[in-house]
Amino acid sequence: MGSKNSTATKRADALRSIDAIVQAAAECLGRNPEASLSEIARAAGVGRVTLYAHFNSRAEVVDAAMSRAIDRGNEVLDAIDLTGDPLLALARYIEAGWHLVDQARALLAAAQRELSAGRIRELHAGPAARVETLVARGRAGGAFRTDLPIAWMVNVLHTVMHSAAEEIRAGRLTSEHAADHITATVLAAFTPPGAPVPETGGGA
According to the 3-state scheme, what is the secondary structure of the chain? Predict the structure, then answer.
């Protein structure tokens, strides 16, 4: 009985350590994408030996932190109303999704250094699926173009969002204008050829 309790205690301690490391990684990398494992371990209140007992490399730590951020982002996106007018739904998605990208842009920069493009796409599968459904609905109703693949259109949206983060880092764009810029750019890209691009701001 004592052995079972001891094992359960060790497992609980290990889970607490892992959670502390992942949380510290998200916070440290969120401030500085080049934060070291030593900094992350210190912020988590553990030693490097403990960190390496749970993660084999910096890439694994970054992956876990990015996964955590995506999971929390999915909780936010789950609350977004993507029904009704697809133009308005797209604007709502961009407003919410942009804030998530804005908050996680330093963490994303770390992920882009450490993880493969395929892994980053895999992590973003949840948000991508939402947009795919929304774009398909907009195409069916004539609001969005049908001459380009849905996967390409989704990629365009997320590429523009990530580019906005880069522009902010470079000092060429402010966070307060990012959502409007993204919405205007994406609506222009999604509008059927020959159709007028919907107004942003007061419109879609």
Answer: CHHHHHHHHHHHHHHHHHHHHHHHHHHHHHHCCCCCHHHHHHHHCCCHHHHHHHCCCHHHHHHHHHHHHHHHHHHHHHCCCCCCCHHHHHHHHHHHHHHHHHHCHHHHHHHHHHCCHHHHHHHCHHHHHHHHHHHHHHHHCCCCCCCCCHHHHHHHHHHHHHHHHHHHHCCCCCHHHHHHHHHHHHHHHHCCCCCCCCCCCCCC
